[in-house]
């Protein structure tokens, strides 16, 4: 056996060096959901901004093609809005309309929720009154305006009744459906522990039906804005509806669109506030839209 000499250079080892492969980084499910919501929110905001820019560009095009009577210049709308806010015209109209909206919504919410709890909680009562509720709901609200004028006059009281009539039925129907479809297991468990009828309503059925009730309130609040404008157009003209009618009769389209923008912003703000309240109060629900 031949021994290697001590001064003989060592033969280099050309065998490949295998490095460990780093495992891919896996984010927790909460982080992935948060990133997905962030990307989705950015995409939604970008799409909304694009649509707004397209609408603005369309207004400029219509103004250039058809003139101010067809579509006022957006610059004129902004200028007229500044004038109406600075001289107090828009603020007075907004205050009058908000008074009617607030009173009508509170009245419709109170009566709609109370009657909805009764109709949904008492099955026989619900069956008796169901055809009458459907008949009133299917009748256009404008059909009752002459009767409301005869009974309540032309001013705030009559306008509040018109708004109540418009928003009452969506709140009533959603509340009734939510109460009637309450969790049967919870109801039977409460009955087994000796819960009284009032306790069963307010401690079990109403909390379980709260998402449906809040949805009805959100729909009713949006309808309140429409009902207020209809009331202000058909009765003593005041508020934002009165400003809308006055500008339309004089073909002051820049002033007309300035009022329309305020009405759109008001309806959007009311709906957003109620949607936020719906998310806060109904926190226990699994929201597929939020990815949770």
Account of the 3D structure:
The chain is mainly α and 292 residues long. The protein has two domains: 41-71; 73-281, MetI-like (MetI-like fold). Helix content is 75%, strand content 0%. It has helices at residues 29-66, 74-86, 89-121, 123-138, 145-152, 156-180, 184-192, 197-208, 210-234, 239-249, 253-281. The chain starts with 28 loop residues before the first helix and ends in an 11-residue tail after the last helix.
Relevant terms:
292 residues, mainly alpha, MetI-like fold, 2 domains, 75% helix, disordered N terminus
What's this model, at a glance?
Helix content is 75%, strand content 0%. It has 11 helices and no strands.
How do the helices and strands line up, and which of them pair or pack?
Layout: H1 29-66, H2 74-86, H3 89-121, H4 123-138, H5 145-152, H6 156-180, H7 184-192, H8 197-208, H9 210-234, H10 239-249, H11 253-281
Helix pairs in contact: 2-11, 3-4, 3-6, 3-9, 3-10, 5-6, 6-9, 9-10, 9-11, 10-11
Subcellular location: Cell membrane
Pfam family, one: BPD_transp_1
Domain ABC transmembrane type-1: 94-274
């Amino acid at each position: 056996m031949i021994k290697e000499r001590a001064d003989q250079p060592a033969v280099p080892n050309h065998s490949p060096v295998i490095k460990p492969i780093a495992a891919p980084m896996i984010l927790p499910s909460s982080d992935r959901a948060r990133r997905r919501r962030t990307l989705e929110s950015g995409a939604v905001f970008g799409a909304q901004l694009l649509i707004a820019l397209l609408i603005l560009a369309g207004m400029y095009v219509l103004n250039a093609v058809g003139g101010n009577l067809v579509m006022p210049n957006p610059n004129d709308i902004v200028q007229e809005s500044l004038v109406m806010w600075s001289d107090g015209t828009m603020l007075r109209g907004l205050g009058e309309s908000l008074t009617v909206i607030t009173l009508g919504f509170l009245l419709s919410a109170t009566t709609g929720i109370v009657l909805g709890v009764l109709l949904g909680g008492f099955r026989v009562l619900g069956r008796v009154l169901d055809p009458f509720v459907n008949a009133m709901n299917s009748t256009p609200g404008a059909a009752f305006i002459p009767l409301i004028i005869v009974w309540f006059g032309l001013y705030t009281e009559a306008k509040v009744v018109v708004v109540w009539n418009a928003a009452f039925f969506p709140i009533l129907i959603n509340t009734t459906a939510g109460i009637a479809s309450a969790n049967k297991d919870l109801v039977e468990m409460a009955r087994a522990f000796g819960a009284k009828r009032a306790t069963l309503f307010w401690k079990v059925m109403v909390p379980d039906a709260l998402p449906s009730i809040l949805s009805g309130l959100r729909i009713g609040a949006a309808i309140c804005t429409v009902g207020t404008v209809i009331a202000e157009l058909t009765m003593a003209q005041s508020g934002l509806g009165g400003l809308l009618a006055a500008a339309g009769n004089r073909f002051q389209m820049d002033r007309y669109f300035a009022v329309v923008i305020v009405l759109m912003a008001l309806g959007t703000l009311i709906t957003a506030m109620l949607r936020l309240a719906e998310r806060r109060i109904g926190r226990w629900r699994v929201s597929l839209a939020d990815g949770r």
